Amino acid sequence: MSKIQRKDYDYLFKLVLVGDSGVGKSCLLLRFADDTFSTSYISTIGVDFRFKTLSVDNTIVKLQIWDTAGQERFRTITSAYYRGADAIMVVFDKTNRESFDHVKEWLDEINRFSEGSVRLLLGNKFDRQDSIQVSEDMGKRFAESHGMKYLETSALSSHQVHDAFLLATKDLIGKKSKNVT
Ligand code: GDP
User: Fold this and answer.
1) In this structure, which residue's CA is closest to atom 9 in ligand 1?
2) Which of 90, 123, 124 is nearest to 107 (CA)?
3) Among 36, 101, 119, 166, which is most exposed with the fewest C-beta within 10 angstroms?
4) Which value does ipTM take for this structure?
């Protein structure tokens, strides 16, 4: 007799983090998944991922979150990284204008490798108010013109980190329930 397997979640979503090296992707993941912050987080080579289970309006969602682990420029596994991604978070550093200018390039790559994914733009390092090079308005306008939602986060202070992942998750649940009916 076969055993009845009960899943411990309603949905499993793959979420990937992209953006220039140093913008804070690993720290955002660490903050969200473990609620810690480390200035000396040394990741493994290649790709890292973590699971986090969330309960959203009585729906249990398991997120599998992928991080490039510092290999942004050397990735030879780009297509595997994006394969099956339900949501993509593009991260830039609010204190680094160049990382914001590169968002366009990240979107080109995303458009090449991913179809129909939910996309969010995150302006990270919100806590460093004395060194801001990219205003909230700039981030918002860019995101709107590319059909993305925009949030400002800080992996250091936790500002809006949970909210960002929650927003992506809610969008994904919304999309799934639309597909079902
Ligand atoms: P990644 O290469 O995009 O994964 O970036 P990391 O997560 O490794 O972070 C790069 C550097 O930025 C590290 O020194 C972190 O301590 C720092 N950092 C990351 N997020 C924040 C943040 O929200 N605020 C501040 N002040 N520093 C951050």
Assistant:
1) 24
2) 90
3) 36
4) 0.99
